[in-house]
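Dear all,

This email documents one entry for the complex benchmark we are building for the journal club exercise. For each entry we list the sequence lines for every component of the assembly. Then comes the predicted three-dimensional structure of the complex as a token string, followed by one or two observations. Please use this as the template for your own entries, and keep the labels exactly as they appear.
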Amino acid sequence: MLIIMRLDASRKEIDTVKEKISSFGFTPHEIPGVQRVAIGITGNKGKVDSENFLTLPGVVEVISVTKPFKLVSRDFKPESTIIDVGGASFGGEELNVIAGPCSVESRAQILEIAQIVKEAGARFLRGGAFKPRTSPYAFQGLKLEGLEYLKEAAETTGLKVVTEVKDTETLSLVAEHSDVLQIGARNMYNFSLLERVGELDKPVVLKRGLSATIEELLMAAEYILSKGNYKVILCERGIRTFETYTRNTLDLNAVPVIKKLSHLPIIVDPSHGTGAWDLVSPLALAAIVAGADGLMIEVHSHPEKAMSDGFQSLKPETFHRLMNRLKEISTIVGRRI
Amino acid sequence: MLIIMRLDASRKEIDTVKEKISSFGFTPHEIPGVQRVAIGITGNKGKVDSENFLTLPGVVEVISVTKPFKLVSRDFKPESTIIDVGGASFGGEELNVIAGPCSVESRAQILEIAQIVKEAGARFLRGGAFKPRTSPYAFQGLKLEGLEYLKEAAETTGLKVVTEVKDTETLSLVAEHSDVLQIGARNMYNFSLLERVGELDKPVVLKRGLSATIEELLMAAEYILSKGNYKVILCERGIRTFETYTRNTLDLNAVPVIKKLSHLPIIVDPSHGTGAWDLVSPLALAAIVAGADGLMIEVHSHPEKAMSDGFQSLKPETFHRLMNRLKEISTIVGRRI
Amino acid sequence: MLIIMRLDASRKEIDTVKEKISSFGFTPHEIPGVQRVAIGITGNKGKVDSENFLTLPGVVEVISVTKPFKLVSRDFKPESTIIDVGGASFGGEELNVIAGPCSVESRAQILEIAQIVKEAGARFLRGGAFKPRTSPYAFQGLKLEGLEYLKEAAETTGLKVVTEVKDTETLSLVAEHSDVLQIGARNMYNFSLLERVGELDKPVVLKRGLSATIEELLMAAEYILSKGNYKVILCERGIRTFETYTRNTLDLNAVPVIKKLSHLPIIVDPSHGTGAWDLVSPLALAAIVAGADGLMIEVHSHPEKAMSDGFQSLKPETFHRLMNRLKEISTIVGRRI
Amino acid sequence: MLIIMRLDASRKEIDTVKEKISSFGFTPHEIPGVQRVAIGITGNKGKVDSENFLTLPGVVEVISVTKPFKLVSRDFKPESTIIDVGGASFGGEELNVIAGPCSVESRAQILEIAQIVKEAGARFLRGGAFKPRTSPYAFQGLKLEGLEYLKEAAETTGLKVVTEVKDTETLSLVAEHSDVLQIGARNMYNFSLLERVGELDKPVVLKRGLSATIEELLMAAEYILSKGNYKVILCERGIRTFETYTRNTLDLNAVPVIKKLSHLPIIVDPSHGTGAWDLVSPLALAAIVAGADGLMIEVHSHPEKAMSDGFQSLKPETFHRLMNRLKEISTIVGRRI
């Protein structure tokens, strides 16, 4: 249930509504908007009687929510959420690109790639240190060592770090070494991890599960928001289909659908989404035109030697060309990079 | 198997190769390219011994084809095929838009919409007269009457007609009344229809089946080409996935994949592909940026009264705006509309 | 819409209702049941006013149908339909097995396999003469020659022939040479073929499409029934999933679901459903226990030499063993073979 | 890589091979079979040179494994693994049924249902105390309280407890209160949880993920075995397909496929697999005939009041009838219940 306050509602009126919600044993969520405040109610197991709130001063409307998600919904917060990460943002006019290797493989490797990423004009460096892998025998990342190299590479170049958190055990370690946490596709249904990340005050890139519907992705984000962390950046990264010429099927339909349903930023990862480096650029450009708020791109200085996902990584010069094309195309859609 | 001729191979050398192929009971397919001629062999049930051809004068190379498709393959014909329909083309620099209602509903309706389509700058009019429907009780189209209205609307406006052919029985009737035939998703595996259409000298829009892979789409096109009709325009129109917020999942990955695998033009239908009018424009623009050679868009003057697919049809003013956006974006990708 | 007649409704009362339906331009379908007659209405494009019929003598109830299928529905006809083919039946207590090679390859081959099938206790012989194939270059069947061999093999052994009809052009030819027509998975959406088969008085095995839902299968059957042919045997043959260890995923859930929704018999084809001969027997037995009314099994005397689908064909001795196991298990579920 | 020892290999020979493996920094896994010992090698990142081992005394053969899974493979251990849980077992001649409510809702509820389950002849009680739910606002289980009720119900009736573990934080708590751990479909890719469960000496039911392939399920089991816990019972519980008449599509093909690929027991959950109580019994019987080693069935004394999954739960009398049918059918397939 959503309670919409009058434009001129006072602080006291807002607090009174929140107290009333708490008195029923529910949790109030105040979401300040540009024009007016909305208050979400969670924790109720059934229907809440709207009469209880409609009579309070400052309340304009009480909306009974039928969609299963609430806090992530655009009904709840009509304006798009802009998530700022040390001066670079997702969800506003600005577009940002997160680039780097699938895995941090060595200090030299990540320092070299960070430089390339920086020079091409991206502001975020990606690189996995804790890798969830289908096989227990596959390379699982350099772990703490990888995090340290990543941080060093970021500090040297002024880039911000995005890296994956794999479990609750390593969460605080990963959080310390990064600017933005990433939750991978295989952990989208890991509700305990989502809740723990929801308790932090740190931006999170949440990737869509391998065969997850858009609603399930939004419900996973709802887990994080419901614990208080509103800084969630959704990420489309391809879904499983019957197609074999691509590793996954990047679903660009999800971009305008999510922009319609939710106020959260949505970025696109065409590297995992297609699994083939020569499909990355056309789909990256298409994603921006479809309305995406940013991109996540795999870049490697020596794709042929990469320990994972080499085939889908862009070489430095291809990445450079893509960044230039993105700048051109972003102005056409009223964005800037 | 493909036989690649020397750049300066003479007519006589080419004919000698073709005769040799015929002497084995196979069918030669000469594909003239900008630089050199290639000759495809079909009709062989097993492996053909390349030694038979390598020794002939004018032959450069004999390529054993491992992909199941041959004539549609870019290995077979490296340059993109440009299909001209009375001065408007698919596959070259020019982009074309096919627009109109899902079904022809009345004379007045199609005349009105043809005018709108024309004014917005499209050159092709679509409209179904024979409709394959999941339910035997659903509206199946105006049939011959619909074809006649469609033709009248096209003649009045100077547009070219694209309309669906549903079965071999009505094929000649539909062919007489149209400039381009359309084979719908549900008929992509209707091999007898594909073969019959392959015997005509008429452009065909071939839509991807509901859950078909890209390879299956190319194999369906191969059926048409193998009978001699090389004027096939492929059409991505969304595949079945688990997503419920969209009717289908428009697969834009298919665009660059098909451009890589095949020389045939590929267009995109975001109306059926998404099933929601407000997703059509962002995905239409994205399709062009991803490399599509054209679009198929549903337009209706009164979507709320449409006998089928009203929810996914654009209103005249929205279509007009989309055409203007397409003109802007096409220049960025080196195309023109 | 369904009109349910009183138990003791007279012939005259029934005819009066049917005339009234016709007078509205709709088509009445009389379905005689063990206890009472129901009359289905098709051909209406919108809602039919139930008041028009409730007042007629002999009418008990008028049911507004919300499911998209009508004539195939168990609401329409509560008792299971039993389809008799020259003394062998589908849908009753009796279970029947349709067995034979994927394709008729030669006179000797089909005569040999017919003998094996007969000796093992099956009563129906399958074998494709017109084969719809994904590739235009694949073996397409022996055509008329194949039909003639098939008929000879059946006459020699006393088996009944089940063979696939691929298109309307060859329909009458195939119908002449067979006891039961088969419509393959790729033709399930070929509505023109369904309608033409619906005009015949001949049993039809209708296979579920490659990614078709159960509702779509029932709608395809509805096309056939709506033209007057009520002798439709549905066939589950596996659907497309992400699984790669099996060619398709045989969906045994479909068996009890269809028994609940429809009065038509449902048989199962574990050969195409799994694509691996060693999975055929366990799933054939499971299908019967789940409630299937029969089976379609590929049998080949020399699977390693088969021109198509050899890997999924049972050898004679394996088929013999399976038939014996089926006899044992059928008694447990109150059926007989 | 697998090293196969001679039938009469001595303890000393076996230990020598294991020491050699360790000396390379790899991990040896000794798997005693009825006839001979095999030793698996894990921890190697690339190919291991077989020459190193072939020359050691007692070694018969060195098999290079191409399948991505090793320890779970039937190549590795040809005989079926039998997992004993206090006298009741999975994987041998005996069939066992795990039954109970989706969630533990109250002390009275679980005590009542445990009694019903016991009387019907099942030996395992299921019931969720920690529930992973798609929505953060849905009932998440009674947690510790639920575990205690469950344990009490089991002790009163002599049943063994199977309950889901949701995360590593609550793992030791859940392990203390249960005889068999369950890892749910949404946690199949939660590799950190799999590893931690692999460190325990406790049987685990591992459910197939929502759209997981059989290979991915086996790889998830491999994670558990690779940490030393070999007591894994695989569970087919339905996969996501396009079908809407069932909640999931129970994939019985998986049963014989897994029996062929792996030595681990495989059980089937037709309650989650179909999502409809009236499909549970036919598919439970079919599962046994297809070769399943047991079943997991939802039973509730008042399904209409259940806090989750009521629609798919069997009522006591239906469960009783099913257990009787299972006893009949199990003898036919050489099993006993």
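Observations: The two ends of chain B are 37 Å apart (CA to CA). Residues 66 and 172 of chain B are 36 Å apart (CA to CA).
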